UniProtKB/TrEMBL annotation:
Enzyme class, first EC level, given as a word: transferase
Primary subcellular site in the record, as a coarse category: cytoplasm
Family as reported in the entry's similarity comment: Belongs to the acetyltransferase family. RimI subfamily.
Name of the protein in its database record: [Ribosomal protein bS18]-alanine N-acetyltransferase
Length: 148
């Protein structure tokens, strides 16, 4: 059995390496480093002492927004994102928070992950994200605990 831990984290070279490896359009190092602090609920997933992914969320009053979730490509497809999603949604449910996110309309793996947890599409922002050749839509999604 692997040793699996979910921990608070501050940006470091390993987490930014995952950011660059996992995303086709990674955040800049400065945006990555700024997305931490008291207004954030950020967790990293450590498997057998290796950081394999993280989730970055901003909290404002009773709303939590998932800004970023990433798993190192060499560890994808093994169920690791579920640990981060479950931890984050437990936190939101325990604190009576709604959860929002935006995702590229072409990001099938992420949309499928979010739908698994009951996220519903709230709106579409046309041509919101840059692509290599132009722009693509963003889906705005919302999650609410069944307890609320
Ligand atoms: C989205 C992401 C975090 C999923 O992480 P993962 O650890 O590979 O996913 P898991 O193996 O835990 O799978 C969780 C769910 O994601 C979905 N999923 C994962 N890979 C998928 C794929 N290739 N195609 C379709 N759905 C997929 C499925 O719904 C899956 O549910 P299941 O376990 O019931 O099959 C990962 O693909 C990633 O880091 N992508 C790049 C960064 C990104 O796009 N982040 C989201 C926007 S910020």
């Amino acid at each position: 059995m692997p040793d699996i831990k979910i921990q608070c984290f501050t940006p470091d070279s390993r987490s930014y390496e995952i950011e660059r490896l996992a995303h086709a359009h990674p955040w800049s190092l400065s945006v990555f480093c700024q997305s931490h602090g008291p207004a954030y609920y950020n967790r990293q997933l450590v498997v057998d002492e290796e950081t394999v992914g993280y989730i970055i969320c901003q909290q404002v009053l009773d709303e939590l927004t998932i800004f970023n979730i990433a798993i190192d490509p060499k560890h994808q497809g093994q169920g690791f994102s579920h640990y981060l999603m479950q931890d984050t949604l437990n936190y939101a449910a325990n604190n009576g928070m709604l959860v929002f996110l935006e995702v590229r309309a072409s990001n099938t793996p992420a949309i499928s992950l979010y739908q698994t947890y009951g996220f519903r599409e709230l709106a579409k922002r046309a041509d919101y994200y840059k692509t290599r050749n132009g722009y693509e839509d963003a889906l705005v999604m919302k999650w609410q605990s069944e307890q609320n």
